[in-house]
């Protein structure tokens, strides 16, 4: 059976159950019995977490772990501003958006002010999956087409529609007949800059041509703007030519900002801004509520208004009082503490530190990313740039044992996917770099040549 790159890359196998203490084996059995087999756990030895605070999480034995992966609690676990906002709103009122309320409008105006002026309308959902689902519905309504182009390892969510445009789910979940793939813009192997952008635009044009030849009219190019599932591909030259090609085909560009947005990729605040483009629609999710389910779709009013005037939309919890309170607190913290600029500066330190490690560890083939979103490509041969998934997983699991949490990405699961929380300190970055150096040494020794 073909495994999902996004779900199975760094997942627990029941064959390793014997490595776990009896209490965790009992929890595993209970999960299997009541949750079924679809869920996945991280790591060869799954973590039994019971508490989180700031940049740390703690297991049932009280052991501390530096969280270098969680894109949900992006401003820190248990952030007091979010806890207080949610508590206060829960005590006051929690209802849906079909009543007049100031709070949803105050937040929407503050959120939209972070976008280019053309992106002037927001609709709220519960999750990034729902936001992408809604964006595809809007794009189809606007264009009259159904065809969608995505990259080869893209992941955009779990609803039926977005699962049909998420090849990272694995071949056991076939793509929709309206979906076609393009290779990801991998600057490490194809060379970066303008030539990569023009090549990528040509691939998109050819993909829409394939859709047309099979009788499918184009609707959208949907892309995570740091191509996280494809291996954290951060070259900022690729989306400009791509968006021009998309518009020439009569389709819309949907920027999936669920992972790169909300200052994750640095001072630009939104991943698409690094590319100098303005999308037609933007999907938001994960970090928006710092753990409270809230998400949204931002778009051009001329596109969204047409959809809304012809198709009513309502989402019971999308835009309800408590999630909006959480989202407001998160945005206030990011802006008040200037976390976008902080992510830019700390990200530079982080990447420079990993590149210094590369001088001692030949397994590091490439270091890339933006802001506090890092991809470290692990290879067995630098000259040939041969992916080494076994070593990457060994490093991830060794880091787990050393008290640092990361995961993997990319078609070969050989790229360390590192997403430090936006509230990292200089000491947190130094600790991460120290433990990564140690894990690369121990992991290389554990994987046979």
Major beta sheet, strand line-up? 4-10-9-8-7-5-6
Number of separate domains: 2
As a percent range, the share of helical residues equals 25-40%
The H-level CATH homologous superfamily of the largest domain, spelled out, is Type I PLP-dependent aspartate aminotransferase-like (Major domain)
CATH fold-level name of the largest domain: Aspartate Aminotransferase, domain 2
Sheet having the most strands: 7 strands, mixed
Basic shape: globular
- What is the H/E order? HHEEEHHEHEHEHHEHEEEHHHEEEHEEEH
Radius of gyration based on Cα positions: 21 Å
Strand content: 15-25%
Which oligomerization state do the chains in this entry correspond to? Answer: single chain
Structural summary, described in words:
The chain has a seven-stranded mixed sheet with strand order 4-10-9-8-7-5-6, with helices on both faces. Strands 11, 12, 13, 15 and 16 form a five-stranded antiparallel sheet that branches. It has a four-stranded mixed sheet with strand order 1-2-3-14. The mean pLDDT is 95. The protein has two domains: 139 residues, Aspartate Aminotransferase, domain 1 (Alpha-Beta Complex); 257 residues, Type I PLP-dependent aspartate aminotransferase-like (Major domain) (Aspartate Aminotransferase, domain 2, 3-Layer(aba) Sandwich). Helix 3 packs antiparallel against helix 11, helix 12 packs parallel to helix 14 and helix 13 packs across helix 14. Helix content is 39%, strand content 17%. The longest helix has 21 residues. By secondary structure, it is of the alpha/beta class. The chain is built from 14 helices and 16 strands. A hairpin with a 5-residue loop joins strand 15 and strand 16. The protein starts with a helix and ends with a helix. The radius of gyration is 21 Å and the shape is globular.
């Amino acid at each position: 059976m073909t495994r999902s790159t996004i779900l199975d890359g760094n997942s627990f196998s029941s064959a390793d159950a014997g490595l776990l203490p009896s209490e965790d084996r009992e929890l595993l059995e209970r999960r299997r019995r009541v949750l079924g087999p679809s869920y996945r756990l991280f790591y060869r030895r799954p973590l039994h977490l019971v508490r989180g605070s700031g940049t740390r999480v703690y297991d049932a034995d009280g052991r501390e772990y530096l969280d270098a992966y969680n894109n949900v609690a992006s401003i820190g676990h248990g952030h007091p501003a979010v806890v207080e906002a949610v508590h206060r709103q829960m005590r006051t009122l929690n209802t849906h958006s079909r009543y007049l309320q100031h709070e949803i409008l105050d937040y929407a105006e503050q959120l939209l002010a972070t976008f280019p002026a053309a992106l002037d309308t927001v609709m709220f959902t519960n999750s990034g999956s729902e936001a992408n689902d809604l964006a595809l519905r809007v794009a189809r309504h606007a264009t009259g087409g159904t065809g969608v182009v995505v990259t080869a390892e893209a992941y955009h969510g779990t609803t039926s529609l977005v699962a049909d445009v998420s090849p990272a789910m694995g071949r056991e979940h076939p793509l929709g007949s309206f979906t076609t793939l393009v290779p990801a813009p991998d600057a490490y192997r194809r060379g970066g800059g303008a030539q990569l952008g023009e090549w990528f635009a040509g691939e998109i044009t050819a993909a829409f041509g394939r859709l047309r030849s099979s009788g499918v009219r184009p609707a959208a190019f949907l892309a995570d703007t740091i191509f996280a599932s494809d291996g954290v591909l951060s070259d900022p030259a690729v989306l400009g030519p791509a968006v021009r090609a998309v518009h020439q085909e009569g389709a819309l560009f949907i920027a999936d900002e669920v992972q790169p947005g909300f200052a994750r990729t640095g001072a630009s605040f939104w991943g698409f801004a690094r590319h100098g483009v303005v999308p037609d629609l933007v999907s938001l999710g994960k970090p928006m509520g710092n753990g409270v389910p809230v998400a949204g779709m931002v778009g051009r009013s001329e596109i969204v208004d047409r959809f809304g005037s012809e198709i009513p939309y309502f989402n019971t919890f999308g835009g309800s009082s408590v999630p909006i309170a959480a989202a407001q607190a998160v945005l206030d913290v990011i802006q008040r503490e200037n976390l976008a600029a902080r992510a830019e500066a700390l990200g530079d330190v982080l990447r420079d530190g990993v590149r210094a490690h590369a001088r001692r560890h030949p397994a590091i083939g490439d270091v890339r990313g933006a802001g506090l979103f890092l991809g470290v490509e692990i290879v067995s041969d630098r000259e040939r740039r041969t992916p080494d998934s076994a070593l990457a997983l060994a490093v991830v699991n060794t880091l787990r044992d050393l008290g640092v949490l990361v995961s993997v990405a990319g078609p070969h699961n050989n790229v360390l996917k590192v997403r430090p929380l936006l509230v990292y300190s200089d000491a947190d970055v130094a600790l991460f770099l120290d433990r990564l150096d140690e894990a690369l040494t121990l992991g290389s020794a554990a994987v046979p040549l």
